[in-house]
Amino acid sequence: MSIQAPEAGWFRPPSGGERTWMGLALVWCLVMSAMMPFWHFKGQQNSTGESYTVEPVKFIERVERFVASNKVGEDKGIPIVEPAPGGDAYLLGRMWSWYPILKLKQGQTYRLHISSSDLQHGFSLQPVNMNFQVLPGYDHVLTLTPTMKGDYQVICNEFCGIGHHLMTGRIIVE
Amino acid sequence: MSTVITSPDVIPEAPPRGNHTSGKVRTCATTGLSVCLDAQRFIKLNAVFAVVFLALGGIAALMLGLTRWPAVHLLPADWYYRLLTFHGLNMLIFWILFMEVAILYFAATSLLNSRLASAKVAWVSFGMMAVGAVMVDAVVLMGLGDVMMTSYVPLMAHPLFYLGIILVAVGTLIAVGNFFATIYIAKRDRTYVGSVPLVVFGATAAAIIAVVTLLHGAVVMIPTFTWSLGWTGPPDPAWYRIVWWGLGHQSQQVNVCAMVSVWYLLGHVTTGAKPLNEAVCRSAFVLYILFINLASAHHLLVDPGVSAGWKIWNTSYAMYLAVLASMIHGFTVPASIEVAMRGKGHIRGLFGWLAKAPWKNPGFSAMFLSLVIFGFLGGITGVTLGTQQINILAHNTLRIPGHFHTTVVGGTSLAFMGLAYYVIPLIFRKDFYWKGMARWQPYLFAIGITVMALGMSFAGSYGVPRRHWDVEFSGAAQAAGFGSGAHLMLGIMGVGSVLAFVGLISFVLLAVAAVFFGKPIEGKMPSWGEAPVVAAAKPAVPAGAHDDHKAPGTMALVIILLVSFVVYYFANWKALSDVWHVR
Ligand code: HEM
Ligand SMILES: [Cu+2]
Ligand SMILES: [Cu+2]
Asked: Residue by residue, what is the 3-state secondary structure of chain A?
C-alpha cells in the first residue's frame, strides 16, 4: 500500500526470502567493512593521509633546496632530481606543471612530499594509475616504493584552470 | 487498493475528512486522491522549471560527450570547462532539486489528503530557487564562474555565483519547511488515519536528510561568498572539501530516498504492487537517515588532512549500513512487483511475471530500468570505488562520472522521468502526443546512459582523468597520453552520450508538447497499448497470510547481483595489489 496507510499490524519482523536476503546483504556489508582495516595492516597500497600544514612559500623553498642538492640532469630546462634511496623527495604542483622531474630506484622507498603553490591539483601517476589529492597549504606525504622500472607520466586530474590539461610531469624509475 | 483504473466501489471508503478550503481542492478521477489546488500549482511550476533545466543541462551534455570523444573534440577548452560547470549545476542541482520539491509537495498533500501549509511560503521558496538558478546560469555562461560545480577553493568565481547557490539552497530549505508544516497540519487535522503511507515516509526521510545537507551547504558557501567579496580570508581547502561534501554527498542520499520512494509509487500504480513487509521498507529508510551523514568521507579517501582511521571508519560505518538499506530496497521493490504479478496469474517459471510486466507503459519501464541500472551498475561501482584503498585507482578518473551517471542519471533521473508519465496526465491533466515515442523513450535513455557510463568507466580504468579537455596533452611540457584502448572507450562513451541525449531530448519534447499543447484529459490515464492494471477482485493473498509472499524470481535476480558485486569488488582489490606500494 505504498500510497495508502499500511494495514493494521504492519509492524512485524522480516520473514521468508526477504529475511534471507537481508542476512546475506548484512554479511556482505560486514565483509566489505573488514577488508579495509585488513588491507591497512596486510596490504601494500594504502592512503594514510599523512600530511602537515605548510605555507606554500615555505614548501617552494624546500623544493628548491631539494632540487639544488640532488640535481642530476636536465630535460628541456626542467631539472631531473635523484633523491637518496630511503630519503625525502619533493614534488610541487603548480599552474601548470609538476616540478621537478624525479629519478627513483626500483624497490627503494621514498618519502614523497607533494603540495601545491596555488590551486588544488590531482597527482595522477600514469600508466600505473595511482591518484592522490594535492592541496595548497598541506604537505601530503606518500611513502612510495616503485615496483616497476620505466618512464612514467604525472598528469593533473583536479581542475586547476584553463591550462589544466597541459599540466604534466615525469617520474623515471631505474 | 491496488488500482490504477478503479471503479468507484474500490475507492477507499469515506476518506477521512480533509482540511481543504472549499474551492481549493479537486478529486482525482483516476486515483480517488484529493488534490490540493495550491499544491498542484507548485507541483506544476517546479516540474516545468525542472524540465527546463534538464533540457539546458542536456544540450550541454551532448557537447561535453562530443568533446571528450577524441575523434570529434568539439568544443574549445574554455567552453568545455564552462559547459561542464553548467551541466553539473543544471543537472545535479537544479533539475533534481526542482523535481524533488514537486515530489515533496505531492506526497505531503495528496497522499495525506491535506492542503498545502502555505502558498505564500511556497511562492517565496520557488522565487528564491528560480532567481538563484537563473543567476548561477547567467554567471557561468558569461564566463565568470569556470570553477566546476564543486568550486573548490582557492579557485574563485564571481560573488553572484555563490549567492545564486545560496539562494537555491535556502529556497529549497524553505520548501522542505513547508513540507514539514504540511505534514504537521495533516496530523493535527487528522486528515489521514493510521501511519503515513510508505511513499510519504520515504519522502520524509529524504526531507530530513535534505535539511542536514542544506545546512552544510550554508556553512560552506557563506564564508566562500564573503571571501569572494574580499571581506574575509580564504577558507581552508581541506575544511572546504569536508564540509562541501557534506552537501555534495548527502544530497545524493536525498536523491536515493526520493528515487526509492518513486520506485514504490510507480511499482504500485503500474502493477498494483504493495510492499511485502512495510516494517522492513521503513526500517531501510531509517538506515539512510542514521548512517549516511558521514559518507561524504568517500570523496576524501586519497586526501591529505584526514587520517586513514578517519577514512576507514567513516566509509564503513556510515556507508555500509546505508548500502544495506539500498540492498534491502533492491529486493523489496521487485519482490512486491513479482508478488503482484503472480497474484494476477502470471506464475510461469521464475521470470514469467517479469516477461508479462507492462513494458509498454513508460512509467513502468522507466522505473524498472532505473532499478536495474542503479543496482547493477551504480550500486556496485559506487561501493567499490568508495572503498578506501581502491579509491587510489579511481579518484578523479572518468570512473567517477561513469559511476554517478548510473546512479543519479540512469537511476534517479530515469525514475523521475517515469514519474512524469503519471504527473502529466494526473496533475497537469494533459494527454501525450507521440505515444510510440513515449514508449521507447525510457529504453533509449537507459541504453545510452549505460553505454556512456561503461565507456567512461573503462576509460577511467586506463587512468583517463575526468574534467579534462585533452587526453593527447598536446602542447604540454612533458609528453603524456593514453593508448588505443582508452581511445576506443572514449569513442564508446561518445556514442552512448549521443544516444542518451536523444533519449533525454525526446523526453523533454514529449513533456513540453503535452504540458503546453496537449489535449486536456479528465481522469483517464493514456493507454500504452496494453491492458491497464485493474484492481484485483480480491487481494491475491488474504491479509495475514504474509509468509506466502514468495518471490523466487526476485531472489534469483538479487543473487546474480550479489555474485556480480563480489566478483567486481575483488577484481578491484586484485588490480590494486599490482600497483606501486604506498603508505
Ligand atoms: C544525456 C544525458 C547525459 C549525458 C550525455 C551526460 C554526459 C556527461 C559528460 C560527457 C560529462 C563530462 C565528464 C567529464 O569530462 O569529466 C558529464 C559530467 C557530469 N554529469 Fe552528465 N550527462 C548526462 C546527464 C546527466 C544528468 C541527468 C545528471 C544529473 C542528474 C548529470 C550529472 C553530471 C555531473 C554531476 C557531472 C560532473 C560535472 C563535473 O565534473 O563537475 N549528467 N556528463
Ligand atoms: Cu593541476
Ligand atoms: Cu589540473
From this structure: CCCCCCCCCCCCCCCHHHHHHHHHHHHHHHHHHHHHHHHHHHCCECCCCCEEECCHHHHHHHHHHHHHHHEEEEECCEEEECCCCCCEEEEEEECCEEECEEEECCCCCEEEEEEECCCCEEEEEECCCEEEEECECEEEEEEEECCCCEEEEEEECCCCCCCHHHCEEEEEEC
